[in-house]
Specification:
Helix content: 40-55%
Strand content: 5-15%
Strand order of the largest sheet: 1-2-3-4-7-6-5
Order of helices and strands: HHEEEHEHEEEHHHHHHHH
Shape: elongated
Radius of gyration: 27 Å
Number of helices: 12
Number of strands: 7
Number of domains: 2
Length: 295
Amino acid sequence: MVQPNKKQSNAKLQWHPAFCAAAELELRLNKADLEFKREYNLSKKPLQMDLLIIEKRKNVQIQNEIGRIFRRHNVIEYKSPDDGMTIDDFFKTLGYAYLYKGLGEKVEQIPLEELAISLFRATVPKQLFNKLAGYGYLIEKHVSGIYYVQGLAIPAQIIVTSELESQNHESLKVLSKSAEKEDIQKFTEMAKNFKEPGDKEKADAVLQVSVAANKEKYDEVRRSTGMCEALRELMKDEIEEELKKNREKSLEEGETQAKKEMAYELYHEEGFTIERIAKLVKMDQKIVEEWLLQK
């Protein structure tokens, strides 16, 4: 099975780009109606939304339930599994929405009624819910994993991805440090059949992070009946590259072994000096000495 990107394995996983890809996959049935702007800068200084989703026309009916609350302009905040979600994060996102409105090129270019915010996190932000309730806001569970915050000037929702139903949320469900085998299988099968331009690349972005965070689970899926072929199809380019590297490594190892045997024969049977052998096999003299000592 293809290994996760080494840079991602050795450093902090890049959850945010993967989330943006997952969000676009979740809402792909309305791809023609929506514009996605990643890391949208609110000003010339670094005030940056994680994702801004703009409906291209009014009164769009978003098919995925995470978009039922959407308005024309939707400010999105995402927290990775390593990050918390505090009351300040909530009001920062709300502030981004208000600032986005206030920075329009003309007055009321973005009406208040055309704004909404969504915050995503893998697990329930209990302290945030308690704080919001303490401030007098009502937390209403719309469906499993989707909570509306009532009492604000604009619609707001908090989405707990681990609580979402698997159907229609495959992309977000696997974007976790504890992805379920069933969700991995569903995402793999779904992504394998992507035909629309760009969908395969977004699936790859999600998969890179998901595999790195859930290697053992993916190994289980790889060994499952039928799933190995699905993963191979989805990641065939990466797998072919890995196989190429393995073949090159095998050839290199075979060549090295042949040189070792030649050095041993030339030294013990032909009486060649180590210096001369090193020149003949085109290896460093110290390496040749180590080979002969190993024999």
